[in-house]
Amino acid sequence: MFNAIVSAGTLRTALDSVSVLVEECKLHLNDDEIAIRAVDPANVGMVDLALSADAFESYEADGGVIGVNLSRLQDIAGMAGSDDLVHLELDEETRKLHISIDGLEYTLALIDPESVRQEPDIPDLDLPAKIVLEGRDINRAVKAADMVSDHIALGVEEDAEQFYVDAEGDTDDVHFELDTEDLIDLTVGPAHSLFSLDYLKDMNKAIPGDAEVTIDLGEEFPVKLHFDVAEADGSVTYMLAPRIQSD
Amino acid sequence: MFNAIVSAGTLRTALDSVSVLVEECKLHLNDDEIAIRAVDPANVGMVDLALSADAFESYEADGGVIGVNLSRLQDIAGMAGSDDLVHLELDEETRKLHISIDGLEYTLALIDPESVRQEPDIPDLDLPAKIVLEGRDINRAVKAADMVSDHIALGVEEDAEQFYVDAEGDTDDVHFELDTEDLIDLTVGPAHSLFSLDYLKDMNKAIPGDAEVTIDLGEEFPVKLHFDVAEADGSVTYMLAPRIQSD
Amino acid sequence: MFNAIVSAGTLRTALDSVSVLVEECKLHLNDDEIAIRAVDPANVGMVDLALSADAFESYEADGGVIGVNLSRLQDIAGMAGSDDLVHLELDEETRKLHISIDGLEYTLALIDPESVRQEPDIPDLDLPAKIVLEGRDINRAVKAADMVSDHIALGVEEDAEQFYVDAEGDTDDVHFELDTEDLIDLTVGPAHSLFSLDYLKDMNKAIPGDAEVTIDLGEEFPVKLHFDVAEADGSVTYMLAPRIQSD
User: Fold this and answer.
1) How distant is the Cα of B218 from the closest Cα of chain A, in angstroms?
2) Mean pLDDT, to the nearest integer, of B139-147?
3) Are A203 and A45 in contact (CB under 8 A)?
4) Where is the Proliferating cell nuclear antigen PCNA C-terminal domain (chains A, B, C) (predicted)?
5) Tens digits of per-residue pLDDT, A28-72?
6) Please, are residues C45 and C203 in contact by the beta-carbon 8 Å criterion?
7) What percent of chain C stands above pLDDT 90?
8) What is the DSSP string of C48-61?
9) Strands B45-52, B234-240: parallel, antiparallel or unpaired by DSSP?
10) C48: closest CA among C240, C239, C237?
11) How far apart, in whole angstroms, are the C-alpha atoms of residue C74 and residue C8?
12) What domains are defined for chain C?
């Protein structure tokens, strides 16, 4: 059983954060939240989304799992204004999701959850450095790095108490640093890892400019990016595996 | 003889409503209005436009007929701001149209009207259902249907007093219904016909969101869409032939 | 030695005016200004840019010459808001340009000035007609001519005291004229020359709509277009060779 009403804006934010990595996913319709975990086909980027029942106008669910095509669902949500309400109701018999938006009814065929790529175990890492910053600074770093390279190093300068981003191109380099004045918070620790810029660009697309993003970082370890959505009634965690340092 | 002055906005609205169906057309320069009738190459969609002399700042004509390339004329009108005046003057001798916009003079070569596809006879149908609604609701229906299918059914639910739109895709369906509260007016009658979505999408492009559109509908009959332009000094009627119901 | 701070807006305006003609250029880092002269590969269009030290927040230079890839430098300047300051510093040893924008550091590899196409001698022509007009009128003329032709005639009607633009297409023509009321200033003289529209379109892209542009014109002679940038602390002169009149 699943019957819920949510604003189109909240639904879109949630879907966007997952669709930057995968095209299909499983939705766990838990009794207190919708949960999605997914990993991209190359097993490099993962997302863990939870959208609490509090983010909904009304919410009833009993723990079922459905498989959905995200771009279909995004297209439908895109038919509504941000504040319009979207009514989602699962038809258990036909295994279709009925979606209503102000007189418009869309019947979405679901995907067999068994056919969706298996959900990742998101490892519980103890990463030594923690950086809290605004989403727009991640955007700036990613855009700058993209001018010169297809990978990006994130690290912490422990003595100077700085978070830095490095990108080395064939001829040009980019270096970006933020100190404790620019950051919301910083816990220093040994941290320097190289990542594929493509993945970070995709994740960046889903990070609002005014979001407070927490980055957990280590030395040649995966990075975790965490931020809240839906006025803190939802949360998104990305994890990205490091690239082997080439030099 | 043809010598007229009209705002660029009015001229563009009129041209746009025809150019969604055809690239060339005949303009009947009647003494009280400009009239255009045209049918698309596949003979499926027709347009009937009348723009009264009242829509012009000044208007003189004596019943001539000229052939024009619509996209040329649209490009020229596009050089002006919406409120700028466009002066149109026919040179009978050279068979060219002189178009002036604030110091800019464009000399447009006309097309031999004989070489333009013949104008359709727009059949005088007695369609049993009449739906009056806002242009934006047509837009919404067309966009929703376009997510799942390339054809669209329009119909009236007589008992429930509803106008509905149905689109059936391979896996997903869209159903949109508007009752008398959502509609401006409704005359019920037996009505259900299937149409090519491509044509309706093209016609929809020319329908302003705030226009009051009258739809005349029957059972497996053509549909007529009618709306006013140029502050009611002009009117557009589209007619679209039905597709044979495939199921 | 070169060490300067300038607003991103001013830097972008200067770079844009040159990049419409060439991809690489030499920057003369004179002690009182940055100067760029360049000619396009076909030797048809030239640009002469001077950006005075007064256009900078701070400026130190001693006459060196560096070669730069303009689109790289534009991309970097594009990372900043218009009012953000860009700090440029030349590293003489590595021959790299360090560019800083609010915490972001970009290291730009320079190009050997010897490998950049040789700078043109901009001829000192005594052209009989001078037209001073707003940039937006040039834009209007160029857009109108582009509808019908790939070349454009500029000229002065001496008796009528008008500046005119003519473009003749295969079937359609455009004529645009501005009299002394429309122009800021006009010095009449024998002037009529034909130009490639492609070049004028490129130059037009770099001319602000509200710029006061001075056009020097003769009979089958090159045209000069001159306008100020950076609140008159910089100036741009384009010169465009005429096409041979074909008729």
Assistant:
1) 22
2) 96
3) yes
4) 122-242
5) 999 999 999 999 999 999 999 999 999 999 999 999 999 999 999
6) yes
7) 95
8) EEEEEGGGSSEEEE
9) antiparallel
10) C237
11) 10
12) 2-114 (3.70.10.10), 129-240 (3.70.10.10)
Distance CA B106, CA B76 (A): 8
**Chain A hits for B177, Cβ within 8 Å:** 103, 105
Distance CA C11, CA C173 (A): 39
Q: Where are the alpha helices (DSSP H) in chain B?
A: 8-19, 70-77, 135-146, 197-205
Token pair 């097309």 is found at B111
- C147/B104 CB distance under 8 A: no
| Rounded CA separation A99/A116 (Å) | 21
B142's tokens: 């067309």
Q: Are residues B241 and B45 in contact, defined by beta-carbon separation less than 8 angstroms?
A: yes
Q: How far apart are CA C174 and CA C172, in angstroms?
A: 7
Segment B182-212, tens digit of pLDDT: 999 999 999 999 999 999 999 999 999 999 9
Q: Is B176 exposed, middle or buried (0-12, 13-18, 19+ CB in 10 A)?
A: buried
Over chain C, what is the mean pLDDT? 96
Q: Which helix (H) or strand (E) holds C200?
A: helix C197-205
ipTM: 0.90
In terms of CA atoms, which chain C residue is nearest residue A170?
Answer: C109
Mean pLDDT throughout A113-121?
Answer: 94
Chain A: closest CA distance from residue C20 (Å): 21
* Residue B145 C-alpha, separation from nearest chain A C-alpha, in angstroms: 9
Query: What are the two backbone dihedrals, phi and then psi, of residue B137, each rounded to the nearest 5 degrees?
Result: -75, -35
The answer to whether A104 faces chain B, any CB pair under 8 Å, is yes
Return the sign of the alpha-carbon dihedral for residues A138, A141, A147, A148: negative
C-alpha A238 chain-centroid distance: 5
Q: Does the structure show a pLDDT above 90 at B245?
A: no
Confidence of residue C218 (pLDDT cuts 50, 70, 90): very high
Are the beta carbons of B103 and C143 separated by less than 8 Å? Answer: no
d(CA C145, CA B106): 9
Q: How many C-beta atoms lie closer than 10 Å to residue C110's C-beta?
A: 17
Coil, helix or strand at residue C213: strand
Q: Do C104 and A171 touch (CB under 8 A)?
A: no
Write out residues 190-219 of B within 8 Å (CB-CB) of A: none
Q: Which amino acid is at C96?
A: K
Select from A222, A221, A199, A203 the least CA-distant residue to A213.
Answer: A203
pLDDT reading at A247 higher than 60: no
SS3 call for C229: strand
DSSP chain A: -EEEEEEHHHHHHHHHHHHTT-SEEEEEE-SSEEEEEEE-TTS-EEEEEEEEGGGSSEEEE-SEEEEEEHHHHHHHHTTS-TTSEEEEEEETTTTEEEEEETTEEEEEEPBPGGGSPPPPP------SEEEEEEHHHHHHHHHHHHTT-SEEEEEEETTTTEEEEEEE-SS-EEEEEEETTTSSEEE--SEEEEEEHHHHHHHHHTS-TT-EEEEEE-BSS-EEEEEEETTTTEEEEEEEPPBPP--
d(CA A81, CA A77): 8
Q: How many CB atoms lie within 10 A of CB C130?
A: 19
pLDDT confidence of A246, banded at 50, 70, 90?
low
Cβ-based neighbour number of residue C210 at 10 Å: 8
User: C193 - beta bridge partners?
Assistant: C154
pLDDT tens per residue across span C29-80: 999 999 999 999 999 999 999 999 999 999 999 999 999 999 999 999 999 9
CB-CB under 8 Å, A172 with C79: no
And the tokens for C101? Answer: 């924008």
| Look-up of token digits 């950051």 | A183
